[in-house]
Amino acid sequence: MTAPATRPSAPTRPTGRNWGAIAAIIKKDLTAVRRSKAVMIPMLAVPVLLLVILPLLIGLAARAQTGDMSSFLASIPDGLSEPILALPAEEQLIVLVNGYLLAPLFLIVPLMVSAVLAADAFAGEKERRTMETLLHLPIENRDLFIAKLLGAFLPAVAVSWVGFLCFCVVANTVAWPVMGRIFVPNSLWLVMILWVAPAVATLGLGVMVRVSVRARSTQEANQLGGAVVLPLIFLAVGQSTGLLLLDLPVALAIGAVIWVLALALTIRGARRFTRDQLATRI
Q: Comparing C-alpha atoms, which of 245, 30, 242 is closest to residue 148?
C-alpha cells in the first residue's frame, strides 16, 4: 500500500502579507461565484426583495394611511417618538416604517451574503474539486485565510451599500408626494450601514468560514451554519412588529458587541487554520 502524496508546506515569509497572492485568490473566488447560479440568485434576490420591493410596497401603503399614530408612538422610547410626533400626521407612518422599523431588517442582507459566500469558500472548492490546487499554492496559511475572508466580506459590504442606495432612492421617491423632501438616510440608518452592517458581515464570516472548512459541500455548510441567522431574524421581527425599537445609542452598543464577537471568532479561526485541517477533509 503506497503512502499518500505529501503536500508541500506553505513558504515562510519574513514580514508582511502576500497581497498579490491574496488578490489573485479573491479574483478567482469572485469569478467562481459569478458563474454559480446557486450562489448568485439568493445573493441578489434577497436584497432586491428587502431593499427595493418591500420599501416600495410599504411606502405606497403608508401614503394611503390616514389614521392617527400618536397612540402607537406613545408606547415607544421618547428618543425615537419625539421627532416623529413633531412631524405632520401624514408623514409619521412613512418616517416610522422606512426611517426606523426597516433598519434592523436590513442587517439580514450583509449576514446572508457573507454567509452564502463564506459557505462556498472551502466547501465550494471541494465540490469543484479544486481543493488540491488550493493546498499547493505558494502562500502562507494566514494569507490564504485572509483571502477567503476578504473574498466574502468585500462583496457582502458592496451588496449592502449598493442595496442601501437603492433603498434610499425607492423610499424617498415613493414618499415624495407626502414628504416633499429626502428623509432617508437618517442617523440610525447611517449607524446601521457604516457600523453595524460590516460587523454583522464579519460575524457571519467568523462562523461560516470555520463551518465551510469542516463541511464537504456548500449545502452542508449552509445547513450547519444556518443557526447564525436566527438571532438576527428575531431582532428584525421584534423591530418590525414594534416589540423592540432601536434608538441610536442602542444601535451603537449592539454594533460594538457584534464587532467584539466577530473579531474574536475571526482571530481564533485564523490562529487555528491550517492546510492539514483542509487536507484531511477533502
A: 30
Q: Using the CB atoms, write b or e for 91-129: b if 16+ within 10 Å.
A: bbbbbbbbbbbbbbbbbbbbbbbbbbbbbbbbbbbbbee
How many other CB atoms are found less than 10 A from the CB of residue 65?
Answer: 14
Domain count, the chain: 1
**Residue 257 contacts by C-beta under 8 Å, 6 or more apart in sequence?**
none
Q: Is residue 7 part of a domain?
A: no
77: containing domain = 19-279
Distances (CA, A) of 180 to 69, 90, 183: 20, 12, 9
pLDDT in tens, 93-143: 888 888 877 777 788 888 888 888 877 777 777 777 777 777 777 888 888
Residue 87 CA neighbour count, 13 Å, CB half: 23
Amino acid at position 105, single letter: L
The DSSP secondary-structure symbol of 8 reads: P
Q: Are 282 and 131 in contact (CB under 8 A)?
A: yes
Rounded to an integer, what distance in angstroms lies between the CA atom of residue 28 and that of residue 251?
A: 36
Q: Is the pTM of this model over 0.85?
A: no
Q: Per the domain annotation, does 5 fall within a domain?
A: no
